[in-house]
Amino acid sequence: MSVSLVIMAAGLGSRYGGSKQVDGIGPNGEILMEYSIHDALRAGFDKVVFIIKPEMQEMMDGLVGYLKNKKTADGRAVQVAYVYQDYTSVPDFYHIPEGRTKPFGTVHALLCAEPEVDGPFCVINADDYYGVDAYRTIYEELVKLPEQGKGTMVGYLLKNTASLHGTVSRGVCKVKDGRLDSIQETLKIQLYPDGHLTDLDAGRDLAPDTVVSMNFWGFMPSIFPALRKYFEDFLRGLPADAVKAECLLPVMVGEELKAGRMTVSVLSSKDKWFGMTYHEDRALVAEDLQKLHAAGIYPTSLRD
Question: Strand, helix or coil at 47?
Fold first, then answer.
């Protein structure tokens, strides 16, 4: 049984203005998900599952093909798998609307990884930096999860995850006694230069220390039947011309919590999250990564 890192890398990155998942942002041209992989392997993970579009495989081989020579923290060979997020995995009863090119979101993405996951797993975004401590923390929790009924997540403070360059979408969490009580997908959060944050859709301010989900979840394979049912119900409820609607993992988890079918522990990390929602974020992320290399957090090259 493997402990897997599942990386959602099939997104289009439309707001960023390019393919941010493969933007060489580190001092030696490293892409952000290479830091996630490096951190996960040294925490104890032994398998990496990439969720990609079919046309991305050759590019991915060039970017992370070196992983076939990598070892886990205890000296085992790292397992690597690719799975495709495309319309072939959409149930037969659903007709893809003319003009739809967008993937169906994070629930669909995770379902595509099911054939390659046989034990506890962590699922992340390809274009986020989560931090060394976050992977150690979630690994320790993952290996203790029971087969059924429990999940985990690493929470981050809203003030550390917003961008001055535009709105961001975040899963706004209510946490009670270390567990996720509820999660609300909030699609337009604006950070202002004076530090205050506003949910533009609801017209209300949000506390800077609000805990949010950055799609850093941990589950057992028993989550997959619930994901499949939720995705199929989502598709049945779509209008015939829905060309952009997405089925989102935080929303699904929230429904499972409400129904009492799952509990989710909320972990915290001493590390800082950062990512590239907009192209203007790139310079700050590059600077942060350079500092981490200089401090010895990362070796000169992640690929050796």
Answer: strand
Distances (CA, A) of 111 to 25, 207, 228, 248: 29, 34, 7, 12
Find, among 125, 10, 110, 14, the residue nearest to 59 by Cα.
10
What whole-number distance in Å separates Cα of residue 235 and Cα of residue 229? 10
Cα–Cα dist 268/46, whole Å: 23
Task: Give the separation between CA 155 and CA 173, rounded to whole angstroms.
Answer: 8
Residue percentage of the chain with pLDDT more than 90: 69
Is there a contact between 64 and 73 (Cβ–Cβ < 8 Å)? Answer: no
Main-chain dihedrals φ then ψ at residue 156, nearest 5 degrees: -130, 160
Is residue 31 within 8 A of residue 297, CB to CB? The reply is: no
Scored b (16 or more CB within 10 A) or e, 140-161 reads: ebbeebeeeebbbbbbbbbbeb
Comparison of pLDDT for 278 and 78, the residue scoring more: 78
Q: Is the pTM of this model over 0.90?
A: yes
Rounded Cα distance, 286 and 27, in Å:
7
Strands 263-268 and 4-8: unpaired
**Cα–Cα distance between 95 and 93 in angstroms, integer?**
7
